[in-house]
Amino acid sequence: MKKFLILIREDLSAVNKMTPEQMEADIAEYVKWKDGLQKENRHVMSDPLEGSGAMISKNKVETDGPFIESKEAITGFFVFLAKDTEEAISIAKTCPIFKYEGLVELRPIMDF
């Protein structure tokens, strides 16, 4: 099995409009999804990300807003196991983010 990473991207304006009840339901969906991956022995790690952060280059550090003037931000990540990219795509398509018109970026993790 190979490790894959998905970065969860969400529209921040939509996230900020969620009621506490909607936020709790959203979190419950992710917990359920993670639990399913764990039952299949696929889950490696996952966490939500805070809104603050920095964009860093050799000569500059930007800390303005969540990911610098972006309407969309990476709000979490999952690392999971799949036999190949095709299977990883199938797993990624089951991510709860798609209920809210977000998207995920799928990246294979290099064996190093």
Fraction of residues in H or I helices? 25-40%
Structure annotation, total helices: 3
Largest sheet: 4 strands, antiparallel
Number of E-state strands:
6
Q: What is the H/E order?
A: EHHEEEEHE
Could you tell me the strand content as a percent range? 25-35%
Helices and strands: which structural class?
alpha+beta
Overall pLDDT level: 88
**Radius of gyration of CA atoms, rounded to a whole number:** 15 Å
Distance between the termini: 14 Å
What would the principal axes of the Cα set say about the shape?
globular
Strand order of the largest sheet: 2-5-1-6
- Low-confidence sequence ranges: none
Verbal overview:
- The chain is of the alpha+beta class.
- It contains 3 helices and 6 strands.
- The strands form 2 sheets. It has a 4-stranded antiparallel beta sheet with strand order 2-5-1-6. A two-stranded antiparallel ribbon has the order 3-4.
- Strand 3 and strand 4 (61-62) form a beta hairpin.
Briefly summarize what is shown.
The chain has 3 helices and 6 strands, in the order βααββββαβ.
Quickly list its features.
3 helices; globular; alpha+beta
